[in-house]
């Protein structure tokens, strides 16, 4: 009998990858995915703890699921197993159990390979299940070979956890210590993805460029080595990786941007702030000048490299002058796109204890809007610079409008155009007609794919 599985995913790409693996694990037990929670036999919330707002969503969505579970029981349609997974589960597992007694199971990001056991335990009626230990055996050894989601552009987790301990960040606590998968496992998984139709792979890790898995010769392999190995795979057209830390931008990785054709000219390299005082207080372990030098080097190897970043405004102790230094760094680097956030104190992190130095909410809001205005301006300029140019686009899916296809440029921009749907999956040359704030509009270059009229 088939059962319906609903998964709601918050947070980073790592959670997207994990949600897909949970669906893979549950598929042999008869669960098929649904996007309708109300009649689901099992609902999983894969949560994010990174900022207060993200983490609060867990409890509001849990409230909605509780109502659906009760309605289903009342209508005699059976039970709905409610599970909380991910980083809030890891950080606040016991609290969730206490506050939400209707939750059947809570498990952290490193334990979801035990889902079949947990379900069996739940079926025996043994009460609530809490799995938030960091298991000794990595979950990757227990994941099924067969993946049910077959994407043209897919995520592949190569590294997990973080040993950097930035003063504001919960990730080292929710995901645990750094762990890198052996290169042979990654290559096999990539081959399976390619055989199933994947043409672009994004290698994932909280600290992906700190990757140091066991390589083919039994010695430790760097991310650059892994990239060279994957670039040999027949049928793989594009490679990306995220998220990186500036300290780990090693020479061999910078060179890979020059030497590996399929490595896309786009890099997400968060700096967080521009002032050395704040960078030090954040425990980022590099200065603004060091970051600028890395960017310079990367651009000397790959002049068209598009950069993306993350910024936090209002870190404890941030003065107007510190903030101005962040704006200056943004002006110097020129980002193609970026993410920016107001500092959010997180329980258990060192920065949350800097009580006396907290920045008022209105100051944070004002700084964030100035910073975002600058970043938006840079992003628009970047997109406008493509008008009249030709770029290659992986056509991924149909758009909202009739006859529209959407794909991505090498620089991660969304590109839309009019084209019949049978071209999905192709990489086509597109002439850009208009660069907008968040996307590019273009048209197919005549003759750029074999069937083009
Ligand atoms: N491993 C990645 C991503 C970590 S989380 C990295 O090192 O960059 C993604 C982003 O969320 C961070 O880069 C940071 O900008 C932001 N972030 C993390 N903790 C935060 C906090 N307490 N308040 C506001 N933003 C935060
Ligand atoms: Fe968090 Fe810093 Fe690790 Fe990134 S490098 S996950 S910001 S602790
Ligand atoms: Fe959020 Fe956990 Fe990712 S806290 S950003 S889901 S690692």
Molecular structure report:
By secondary structure, the protein is an alpha/beta fold. It folds into 3 domains: 3-131, 3-Layer(aba) Sandwich (Rossmann fold), CATH 3.40.50; 139-383, pyruvate-formate lyase- activating enzyme (Alpha-Beta Horseshoe); 390-452, Beta Barrel (OB fold (Dihydrolipoamide Acetyltransferase, E2P)), CATH 2.40.50.140. It has 12 helices and 21 strands. The protein has helices spanning 13-26, 52-74, 86-99, 115-123, 171-174, 183-195, 223-231, 251-259, 276-281, 288-301, 320-333, 361-384, and strands spanning 3-9, 31-33, 42-47, 81-85, 105-107, 129-131, 153-157, 159-160, 179-180, 200-204, 212-214, 220-222, 238-242, 266-268, 306-313, 337-342, 390-398, 404-408, 414-418, 427-435, 439-444. The strands form 6 sheets. Strands 2-1-3-4-5-6 form a 6-stranded parallel beta sheet, with helices on both faces. α7 (223-231) packs parallel to α8 (251-259). The longest helix is centred in the C-terminal third of the chain and has 24 residues, at 361-384. It is globular, with a radius of gyration of 23 Å. 42% of the residues are buried. The mean pLDDT is 94. Iron/sulfur cluster binds at residues 162, 164-166, 169, 171-172, 206-207, 245.
SSE topology sketch:
Elements: E1 3-9, H1 13-26, E2 31-33, E3 42-47, H2 52-74, E4 81-85, H3 86-99, E5 105-107, H4 115-123, E6 129-131, E7 153-157, E8 159-160, H5 171-174, E9 179-180, H6 183-195, E10 200-204, E11 212-214, E12 220-222, H7 223-231, E13 238-242, H8 251-259, E14 266-268, H9 276-281, H10 288-301, E15 306-313, H11 320-333, E16 337-342, H12 361-384, E17 390-398, E18 404-408, E19 414-418, E20 427-435, E21 439-444
Parallel strand pairs: 1-2, 1-3, 3-4, 4-5, 5-6, 7-10, 10-13, 14-15, 15-16, 19-21
Antiparallel strand pairs: 8-9, 11-12, 17-18, 17-20, 18-19, 20-21
The structure holds S-adenosyl-L-homocysteine, iron/sulfur cluster (SF4) and FE3-S4 cluster.
């Amino acid at each position: 009998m088939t059962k319906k599985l609903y998964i709601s995913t918050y947070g980073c790409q790592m959670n997207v990858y994990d949600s897909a693996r949970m669906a893979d694990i549950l598929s042999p037990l008869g669960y098929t995915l649904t996007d309708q929670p109300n009649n689901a036999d099992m609902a999983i919330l894969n949560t994010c703890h990174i900022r207060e707002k993200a983490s609060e969503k867990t409890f509001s969505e849990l409230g909605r699921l509780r109502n659906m579970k009760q309605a289903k029981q009342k209508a005699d349609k059976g039970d709905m197993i409610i599970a909380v997974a991910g980083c809030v589960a890891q950080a606040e597992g016991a609290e969730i159990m206490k506050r939400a007694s209707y939750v059947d199971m809570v498990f952290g990001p490193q334990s979801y390979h035990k889902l079949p056991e947990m379900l069996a335990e739940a079926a025996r009626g043994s009460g609530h299940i809490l799995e938030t230990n960091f298991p000794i055996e990595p979950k990757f050894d227990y994941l099924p070979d067969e993946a049910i989601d077959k994407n043209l552009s897919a995520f592949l987790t190569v590294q997990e956890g973080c040993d950097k301990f930035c003063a504001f960040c919960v990730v080292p606590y929710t995901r645990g210590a750094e762990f890198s998968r052996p290169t042979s496992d990654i290559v096999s998984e990539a081959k399976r993805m390619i055989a199933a139709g994947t043409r672009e792979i994004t290698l994932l890790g909280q600290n992906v460029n700190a990757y140091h898995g066991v390589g083919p010769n039994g010695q430790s392999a760097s991310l650059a080595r892994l990239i060279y190995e994957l670039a040999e795979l027949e049928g793989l057209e594009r490679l990306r990786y995220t998220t990186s830390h500036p300290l780990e931008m090693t020479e061999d990785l910078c060179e890979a941007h020059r030497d590996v054709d399929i490595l896309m000219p786009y890099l997400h390299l968060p700096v967080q702030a521009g002032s050395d005082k704040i960078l030090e207080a954040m425990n980022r372990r590099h200065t603004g000048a060091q970051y600028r030098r890395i960017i310079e080097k990367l651009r000397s190897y790959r002049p068209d490299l598009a950069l993306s970043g993350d910024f936090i405004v209002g870190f404890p102790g941030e003065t107007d002058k510190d903030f101005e230094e962040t704006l200056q760094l943004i002006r110097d680097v020129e980002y193609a796109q970026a993410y920016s956030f107001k500092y959010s104190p997180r329980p258990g992190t060192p920065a949350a204890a800097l009580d006396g130095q907290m920045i008022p909410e209105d100051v944070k809001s004002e700084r964030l809007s100035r910073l975002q205005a600058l970043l938006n301006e840079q992003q628009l300029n970047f997109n406008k610079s493509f008008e009249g140019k030709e770029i290659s686009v992986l056509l991924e899916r149909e758009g909202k409008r009739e006859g529209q296809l959407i794909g991505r440029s090498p620089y991660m921009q969304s590109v839309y155009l009019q084209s019949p749907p049978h071209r999905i999956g192709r990489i086509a040359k597109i002439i850009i007609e208009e660069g907008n704030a968040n996307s590019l509009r273009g048209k197919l270059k005549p003759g750029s794919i074999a069937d083009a009229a």
